[in-house]
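Quick start: what a row looks like.
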Amino acid sequence: MRRLMSPMAIHAEKVLVIGLDCAEPSLVFDQWRAHLPNLNALMERGVHTSMNSTIPPITVPAWTSMMSSKDPGSLGVYGFRNRRDHSYEGLFFATSTAIKEKRLWEILSDAGKHVIVMGVPQTFPPSPVNGALISCFLTPDPAKNQYTYPPALRDEIDAVLGKNNYMVDVSDYRTENRDQLLREIYQMTERRFTLAKHFLKTRPWDFFMLVEMGVDRIHHAFWRFLDTKHRKFEPNSPYNNAIFEYYKFVDGRIGELLAAVPNADRDKAAVLVVSDHGAKRIDGGIAVNEWLIREGLLTLTEYPTTPKPLGKLMAEGKVDWSRTRCWSEGGYYARVFLNVRGREPHGIIDPADYEKTRDELIAKLQALGDENGRPIGTRVYRPEKLYNHVRGIPPDLVTIFGDLYWRSIGSVGYNAVHVFENDTGPDDANHAQDAMFLLSAPGITTGKIPPMDILDVAPTLLGFYGLPIPPDMQGKRLAL
């Protein structure tokens, strides 16, 4: 249901959005505030708060939900990979072609505003805008794929940074070669902000948005060296300050970017620093398909000798669908799918038993504890009760293990339900539900404000321009 809008008096001719994927609000607002002078200055002259992210709180679809004010169900995007149909193997990656709702920069483009968009997730392949767009980390290979709009923009990028030097992402953030990863994270961030400063000075803009992925990458690779409560904390590691030093580096680049805003525009511009979700330690993984096997709900014709993604076993024909009631995809959360008669090709659950089956699964999943049987606080959701709309092919259940201190492991072959290595490569951190929101704008009051929702961002920014808010936006315009 749409929430009522609050009145607001703030007007800004320009909006600069600095997106820091995965930036953890407790680090910026509390623990490291004194060491981040540029972010601290924005806090001193603006407002800040924690922001409830999407469920699930992951990059795709959180940024799109933020910029469209539509929840994941309304977008029909429930994660990076989604079911194309009710077959067992029909998964697709949710690129920009999966998005049918207009995002903020498209609404502004239609209103004649000049926009510059850099690196916002789910912008590959690039779409036309009234201005310039550089696509995101989903770009397979910028050297071989068109990643800009207009296409000729890549020539300007090469002129500024050197041919093919723009980085949409690091080469591999799930690596044990942490020294190389650190170098790449710093290179990527430096180049993105260098290019952003160039565009601020050389192109007309009413709306400018960039998203830096480096914060997310450094969290996943180095959180164990930061968090003393981490199961794998290493107290005397040369990487103990890696995340702290990088936050200071990013703060410096933000300061340079703000200084690059032309003097004539500074008093007219609102500045928003925002993340799509936060970060927290991982205590372990729940091998959800292993659990389903033990519960007699998933049956294999051949159990693997080493861990293997269930998708590969499905492709090899090693799932006995005649005796399988459900299966799951892993990741930061678990998507549980039921094998329903008349819906899936070899479904066995009677549609009349659908709700009963979900009730039973919810009770069992929520009772699943840690390796010692202690409760971990798992939450299981029915998509139709979680989202305003349920479009596309949703999971039958959305499962958040252990308040996100536990992630979902989709592979099979561990002979265990509780595992302590990630099946897609090294990973030290999970995502946290709270994102950060930090706004400085002309005429704004200052201080910490009550927590908000990620869906409130787009209508709030539209309000700055005095533009009407589409009635199907699900967030509210903040009273500031």
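That is the whole record. The longest helix spans residues 178-202. Residues 284-426 form one domain.
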